[in-house]
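Appendix B. Chain record.
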Amino acid sequence: YETAEPRRLFVVRWNEQRRWQLGPGDRDSFGASISDDGSRVAYLTRLGDVTQVIVSGVDGANWKQLTAEPE
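Structure tokens predicted for this chain:
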């Protein structure tokens, strides 16, 4: 789920009664989309005025930034 302000993403596993945050805690993260097999998630993160695309496992591990910061 996504919170309003600050914008943060959380993954919830109801059967395990666990939740964890996706993305850095010091910036907005939003607009998540989970892969068809449920193993990966793509989302947007913003640092200042720059928005970047991130892909990670649903556990937040092995994240990779897909876009480059402007020069």
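Further analysis of this model is presented in Appendix C.
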